[in-house]
Amino acid sequence: MDLDIEDIQDRLVPVGTLxxxxxxxxxxxxxxxxxxxxxxxxxxTVDDLQKSLQDFARANGxxxxxxxxxxYRNGKPTYYNIIDDWKWSxxxxxxxxxxxxxxxxxxxxxxRKMTEQQLTLLATVSKHKAIKSREAAAIVRDAVPGSLVxxxxxxxxxxxxxxxxxxxxxxxxxxxxxxxxSGLRHRVLWSVDYPDRADAIVWTYPWCExxxxxxxxxxxxxxxxxxxxxxxxFFQVTGTTDISSLFNCAFGLVSNERREGxxxxxxxxxxxxxxxxxxxxxxxxxxFHINANVKMNAKKKWKGPGGILDDELDVNRDKEAAExxxxxxxxxxxxxxxxRELPATAVEHRPSGFYRLWQYVxxxxxxxxxxxxxxxxxxxxxxxxxxxxxxIGTYMPYRHQWAHCxxxxxxxxxxxxxxxxxxxxxxxxxxxxxxxxxxxxxxxAVDQMLKNKQRTYTERIxxxxxxxxxxxxxxxxxxxxxxxxxxxxxGLLSKQRLIALxxxxxAEKPNPPGLQPCQVxxxxxxxxxxxxxxxxxxxxxxxxxxxxxHPRWWLRQPLNVADSLLGIKDPKIVTSLRGRPxxxxxxxxxxxxxxxxxxxxSAGRQPRQASNPAPRPVRAxxxxxxxxxxxxxxxxxxxxxxxxxxxxxxEDGDNRVKRQRAPRKCSKCGSFEHNARTCSD
Length: 681
What we know:
The chain is built from 24 helices and 7 strands. It is mainly α. The chain has 5 domains: about 25-110, no CATH class; about 115-165; about 170-280 and about 420-455, no CATH class; about 285-410, no CATH class; about 470-565, no CATH class. The strands form 2 sheets. A 5-stranded antiparallel β-sheet has the order 3-4-7-6-5, with helices on both faces. A two-stranded antiparallel ribbon has the order 1-2. Helix 10 packs antiparallel against helix 12. The N and C termini lie far apart (about 160 Å). This is MULE transposase domain-containing protein.
């Protein structure tokens, strides 16, 4: 059979094309079709137009990108049609897609774009470093329903905010810019080897200066660690206010903890103190850290059984939170001891016994007690030369700065430990969050901490003013002091008053026991009148005045300045009398007869009537004593008293109702003169 070659070629199908789908059919199988946006009505602005298109695209798995008209995509220009009514419209030119719809609209960056409201909220939230990106993303999403912001978007936005705040500088340069541009007092120690590097910095803030100048009597100094990525110890100077709260005086950073570094810190603090005109306080050491060091070295240097093992040494240098709690516990449990309280027998010859006697040394109530306890300690532990040499060489030359018998005479307002500064370390770390912050972030954390303390101080002052109005304004023994002195000082005075009242003679106790001899500790420490001084004022009938109180406790403005009605006192309390007030019989001149309601004697009592008598007629009472104004206005004649007496006798004889007792009646038989018990029936 002859076949034409051309006919065969027409019938043959190329290999690989038999049954193969077309390219458009394969694309439809791989990617579901994406619907194109419909023609929408003209919009007033291009942003409104894009928003309507973006809403449609978000629901259908794609995003709309607005490009410039001069750009080309796939060789085709993109452009907008502007119609003559100044409205924006959309015209579809090419509806082909080379991909399918996205699974979730969050994969498109345009759908995750934050609004102005969200950006403002994020800038506010980002000031607080304790709020992490995950929580910040949730806060931002909640602000706008349907938002698709991710944690990565928050990190990127925070980084942009940080770069904007740096203004093209490094974090260290931005930190020095804050010091100079804000006019903050600061001191810088530049490195000798590298003049463009700072070895130490000390700075303060206006609010710190005002509080420092107002409350300069008690200052605490201490270092903390793990606050910055340069590993520079963070130095804080703190003080206490009139409400026993904490404030910061100054801050510092030092590259080392050698003597030259501390010399610069202390010299800078003294220089700033002189500039602002704050008073210079006395020096005293923290007794908690002294006790901790003595206890540790007693174990470490102990010869014989009871010493500490090498693996038990605590090398952690950053334990402010634990120290603050331990300090407070030491304050609550510790108290002054006397020579009479020393153990009668020898203590245990171990580090615990050494530390027990050391407590009598540090908390001795008087100087002679201190010397006796110290001599006892040396006598019982004379074989422990290393421990005694440590105490003698380290602390005994400065005993006037830590022994209770000496520091109780200082104006320290009861502060014996460095607990406020330890609390300040905990506060700053709550704002820094981690130890890898740069100096710019550290400065911002300090600024936030100070704003929080300033706000808290104002709130507590207002709260205590309300308590003062409720508790102390009505107490006469305070006089005007209740409106001129703070709440905390009034509380201390009230405790001293209770002690003074135990020695104040009264009608019940004309000869009460006296107070203990005054050692002037309370007055020296708190600059307030003690119980002995208050007792003298009470006996002399004098009122307490503001002149007896240190200016630290004074209010900046008396309470009655803003409200003059607070100067009005309550009326004096009248002696409580039972019934109607009566004048004395001798002063009124009227002999008051006995009341008719008084019970009669059993012999003259008449039996009651069988039925209830009629109510007695109401008449005007003539059995009252004259009031005081009647005695003062006119003289009561003697004849009037006799007339009143005769009238009462006539009424008693004629008009008094005679009540007779009803006869007895038996309930069984109904007869009279006997009852059911004696009835014979």
